[in-house]
Design a protein that fits this description.
Pfam families: PAF-AH_p_II. By secondary structure, the chain is of the alpha/beta class. The protein has one domain (about 5-375): Rossmann fold, CATH 3.40.50. The chain has helices at about 5-20, 85-95, 135-145, 175-195, 210-215, 225-240, 280-285, 310-320, 325-330, 335-355; strands spanning about 45-55, 60-65, 80, 105-110, 120-125, 145-150, 160, 165, 215-225, 245-250, 265-270, 290-295, 370-375. An 11-stranded mixed sheet has the order 3-4-1-2-6-5-9-10-11-12-13, with helices on both faces. Helix 1 (about 5-20) crosses helix 2 (about 85-95), helix 3 crosses helix 10 and helix 8 packs antiparallel against helix 9 (about 325-330). It is globular and about 50 Å long. The model is unreliable at about 1-10, about 10-35 and about 95-100 (pLDDT under 50).
């Protein structure tokens, strides 16, 4: 497999170009009228979202709650993929002095909440990442009736607090998967406050009416990408509120390492397979004592389960890059197929374990997904 450029440099370049074009601003000479977009979710429900500032723990955190809203959601503005100041900092980290705003999502900010109770899924990002990097998966789950809570892990993310204060990755902070796990447990505590009728936002900013009542905290799942995948296992080791966990190419390495689990866990691997160098997946697999499944997407790079696989090919078209350069970045996984995998398999996993709906997709190889190999299951 070809060694790809760093995740941060690729995504920075994609955002720098795509955001400028999307807003009709200056674009590279080769760009023409092209602009980057995220794929639409396939579910029947619209999407609402609201940001939450959480303080009082070990450090301030920003989170977003994504939820099914009423049909009136279309009257509300759509949310950006990242806050503008955090985006600028991300660009500056790669020495790109570009005035850019992020692509827009399908989430309508502050829209009224759809009546009813919905299972809750939490997301933990990778190292030096941000809570938006798996928006394709998040939006698909919400369009199918889930509430998803995404979390910026401060000192390991690009995040902006209310009032404009930036929190950036700190190379001296040594944020580990255990820190991610502690953040998620803290967020879960705040969600319980929200469900009890309180507003956990540090500034007591208004939240959409009915949001707390919509949280079904008896049906909680979690997924994470890379370091966030490892954190998912650690949360489940230490907090029984999370009933099912999904790792998107997580390394499964930490000190201390993940321990045995008797609840459902699924591994979607790309680079960090059981036999890969610097991978703890081989040691982690025997620790799964409940329902378990490992699938491997042939030709997927490490970022194949994130928005990167969809955004980067658009960037190469805008910049007029060669097919060889594109292959170096995304390997052999067609971006359109990557999106379908991202939309189908996490949804099937959570539908099975949080909604008790049989999923034939998880019972064996599917002709609809020839690139997805069933490596091991129980």
């Amino acid at each position: 497999m070809t060694t790809a450029p760093t995740r941060r440099s690729l995504l920075t370049a994609a955002l720098a170009t795509g955001a400028a074009v999307a807003l009709g601003g200056p674009a590279p000479a080769s760009a023409g009228a092209a602009r980057l977009r995220l794929p639409a979710p396939t579910g029947p429900l619209p999407i609402g979202t609201v940001a939450l500032h959480l303080a009082g723990g070990r450090r301030d955190l920003m989170a977003s709650i994504w939820y099914p809203p009423t049909p009136a959601a279309t009257r509300f503005p759509v949310a950006p993929w990242m806050d503008a100041a955090a985006m600028h900092a991300l660009l500056a980290s790669a020495d790109l002095d570009v005035a850019a705003a992020p692509p827009r999502t399908a989430g309508h900010e502050g829209a009224p909440v759809r009546p009813g109770r919905h299972p809750v899924v939490l997301f933990s990002h990778g190292a030096a990442g941000h809570r938006s990097e798996a928006t394709i998966v998040v939006q698909e789950l919400v369009s199918q009736g889930y509430i998803v809570v995404t979390v910026d892990h401060s000192d390991d993310s690009y995040s902006e607090l209310p009032g404009g204060r930036l929190i950036l990755p700190d190379d001296n902070a040594s944020i580990t998967p255990w820190d991610h796990a502690r953040d998620i447990r803290y967020v879960l505590d705040r969600l319980e406050e929200l469900a009890a009728g309180h507003n956990p936002d540090a500034g007591r900013r208004p939240l959409p009416a009915g949001l707390g009542a919509a949280l079904d905290l008896g049906r909680v799942g979690m997924f994470g990408w890379s370091k966030g995948g490892t954190a998912t296992a650690l949360v489940m080791n230490t907090d029984h509120r999370v009933r099912a966990g999904l790792s998107l190419d997580g390394l499964m390495l930490s000190q201390p390492p993940p321990a045995a689990l008797d609840r459902p866990f699924m591994l979607m691997t790309a680079v960090y397979t059981p036999g890969a160098e610097e991978s703890g997946v081989g040691e982690f697999w025997p620790l799964l004592r409940g329902w378990r499944l490992q699938v491997h997407t042939e030709g997927a790079p490490h970022g194949g389960y994130c928005d990167h696989q969809w955004l980067i090919p658009q960037l190469t078209t805008i910049l007029g890059r060669s097919d060889e350069e594109l292959h170096d970045w995304i390997d052999d996984l067609d971006p359109r197929r990557a999106v379908r995998v991202q939309q189908a398999y996490p949804l099937a996993f959570f539908d099975l374990h949080l909604r008790d709906r049989r999923q034939r997709l998880l019972e064996g190889p599917s002709p609809a997904f020839p690139e997805v190999e069933f490596v091991a299951q129980l």
